[in-house]
Structures are given as structure tokens and as C-alpha cells.
Write a structure and sequence with these properties.
- The chain is 66% helix and 7% strand.
- By secondary structure, the protein is mainly alpha-helical.
- It folds into three domains: 1-77, no CATH class; 109-225, no CATH class; 228-331, no CATH class.
- α4 runs antiparallel to α5 and α7 (130-146) packs antiparallel against α8.
- The structure holds zinc ion.
- The site of zinc ion (ZN) has 8 residues, from β6 and α12.
Length: 332
């Protein structure tokens, strides 16, 4: 090997003088296929390869390199805001190498479908209201459902909550979230409808096998379905903590007997030392109490301010007299 070839060989080893294909290959060798993988390095080499393919006029390979760079950047940084960009670069391509492999290829269409659903989930998280969250999660669920029993390709690598291996399970999970937010969006107008949606959510979360969400929803179901009369106005209300609450109060056996003898609702005092009051009566009392407390606080503040001012006057006067005395003392 001549000196020129040897310099060239050393150059290639450190990444100088590579052609586009070699640069692309380098992304695998110095990034994807390392153990553990070095994704930032892979992204850097794929991006460089993309530029070089473009210079050579090889648009197909440039697109593939760009798709890989964007895909591995998503896996590395887990910034789901880059999903639209990734979907866009994958769309004109029919096949890409599997994540973590160079030779095994996968169709892009199921990968794009998974990414679209993840994008709907991401949009749901950014919605400011429950009704929109309901729609976004339903879109995500429909997308995952279309993938059926297929395995998911990328979700597991993004450290997402919920099932990340099977499309079907993630579909149930998203449907459960859609029903859950749907329940929250209607609870103030209809606790009965909210109860229905919560029950659907519970069934979805069970199918998705997500225990924590099942538990959360079961707790909501218990509360939203519970009913009690208001001790103050006597109306029956449905939905604990939404339309009635337990307020601290003195209750004795005598009150239980009274309710029993008049066939009234015993649930009003089924929690010792508390009574159920509807949120209308309860908030009226709280607001009024708040007004009195504010008035009283203002009175105390005015009285205290006056007192502080008087004390200040006395102190100022004492200071002046002290200084006068000191001046006299210095002269002697
Ligand atoms: Zn009431």
C-alpha cells in the first residue's frame, strides 16, 4: 500500500473522504449497531449522508437517510413534537430498515399509522378542554385499532405510559382515556351520562390491562354514581364531590333516629361527624362565611394600624427627648 492509500485509509477510519454510501454505513457502525447504541452519533452520520446523497443526486437514498436521522432523533430525544416531521419524511418511502437493524426491512405504512396515533395522543395532552381530549384520544384509538394484532414498532422506545407492545391493547387504552375525558366533560351537566362513560372507560382499561387507570376509574364510578339528600334544602343529588359534599357537623344517635322515624335519607349522616350538603347550599354558606371573615379581618387590620401609629408617635417622641438629653450631657 502506497503512502497515499495509507493516508486515505486512516482518513476513512476517522470519517474523512467517505462517499455517501460509506457515510450512511458509518451511521450503523458508529451508532445504531453499537452496544449500547449511540443514537446522537447515528443521527449525525445519517444527516451527513443525506447531504452527500443529495449532492450526488441520489434522492431516494437521501430520503432514506433523512428518515433514519429523524427516526433515531425521536428515539434519542423522545420529543414527540417532531412526529409530524417524521411522518412527512416517511410518507414517500415504502420500506425502511427496522429500528436497531440495517438489513431487516419493514413497511412504512403501519409505522406511519402508529406515529399518527401517537401524534393524536400528543395533541390530546395539549388540549385545553375535556371535549377536545375525548376526540383526539378517540382518533388515536381508531388508528391503533386498524393495526389490529400487529406489534407496535416504536412506542416502547419512547417511554410512554400505557401498553406499548401491541396495537390492540394501546387502542383500548386510548379508548379508555377518551371515555374518561368524555365523562369529565359531561359530569357538570349530567352525572348519569358521566357514570355511563366512566363504566365504558373501566371496561376499556380492563381490556388494556392497565391496573392504575382501572383503579382511578372505579373510584370515580363509586363517587359519580352515589346519591344523597342535602341536609339543608332536602334535594336529592347525584355525584359526591361534584354535586354534594360531606361537611363537618355535629351529629348524634338522636339524628339517626329522627331520620329513621320520618323515613328520610340516612345517607345524609352515614359518615360520623359529617353531614351531606349539596354544593349549592354548601357554596352559599362558604361564600357568606368568607365575606364575614374578610369583613372581620379588615376591621382588625384598621384597629391594629391605628394602634401601631400611636405607638410609633410615642417612640418618635421618646427618641427626640433622648437626643436632647444626650446633647446636654455632652456639653457638661
Ligand atoms: Zn341543598
Amino acid at each position: 500500500m502506497g503512502i497515499f492509500d495509507r493516508v486515505k485509509a486512516v482518513g476513512k477510519e476517522v470519517g474523512i473522504g467517505l462517499n455517501a454510501q460509506e457515510q450512511y454505513q458509518r451511521a450503523y457502525e458508529k451508532g445504531v449497531l453499537l452496544q449500547p447504541p449511540d443514537y446522537p452519533s447515528a443521527v449525525k452520520h445519517f444527516s451527513k449522508a443525506c447531504e452527500m446523497f443529495l449532492q450526488e443526486g441520489n434522492e431516494d437514498m437521501a430520503r432514506l437517510a433523512k428518515a433514519n436521522a429523524t427516526l433515531y432523533e425521536l428515539i434519542d430525544k423522545r420529543n414527540l413534537d417532531t412526529l409530524p416531521e417524521l411522518i412527512q419524511v416517511l410518507e414517500p418511502i415504502t420500506e425502511v430498515p427496522c429500528i436497531g437493524s440495517q438489513d431487516e426491512m419493514i413497511q412504512t405504512s403501519p409505522l406511519i399509522a402508529e406515529l399518527r396515533s401517537l401524534q393524536y395522543e400528543q395533541q390530546a395532552k395539549k388540549c385545553g378542554n375535556y371535549a377536545d381530549m375525548t376526540l383526539e384520544y378517540m382518533n388515536a384509538a381508531e388508528g391503533f385499532m386498524k393495526l389490529g394484532n400487529a406489534p407496535l414498532h416504536i412506542s416502547e422506545r419512547l417511554q410512554l405510559e400505557g401498553p406499548v407492545e401491541k396495537a390492540m391493547l394501546r387502542a383500548f387504552y386510548c379508548e379508555g382515556l377518551s371515555d374518561y375525558y368524555s365523562a369529565l366533560s359531561v359530569v357538570l351537566s349530567s352525572p348519569v351520562q358521566a357514570h355511563d362513560h366512566m363504566q365504558k372507560a373501566a371496561s376499556c382499561f380492563r381490556q388494556a390491562m392497565v391496573v392504575d387507570w382501572s383503579k382511578t376509574v372505579d373510584d370515580h364510578i363509586a363517587k359519580v354514581s352515589s346519591k344523597s339528600h342535602c341536609w339543608m334544602c332536602g334535594r336529592e343529588m347525584q355525584g359526591e364531590d361534584v354535586f354534594f359534599k360531606y361537611y363537618p357537623a355535629e351529629t348524634e344517635d338522636y339524628h339517626t333516629q329522627l331520620l329513621e322515624s320520618s323515613s328520610d335519607d340516612l345517607r345524609m349522616i352515614d359518615n360520623a361527624g359529617h353531614v351531606t350538603v349539596c354544593t349549592v347550599c354548601g357554596s352559599a354558606i362558604e361564600n357568606q362565611a368568607d365575606r364575614y371573615a374578610t369583613m372581620r379581618a379588615d376591621e382588625v387590620r384598621a384597629w391594629a394600624n391605628q394602634l401601631f401609629n400611636q405607638t410609633n408617635d410615642v417612640l418618635t417622641n421618646h427618641n427626640e427627648r433622648l437626643r436632647a438629653l444626650e446633647r446636654v450631657a455632652h456639653r457638661h
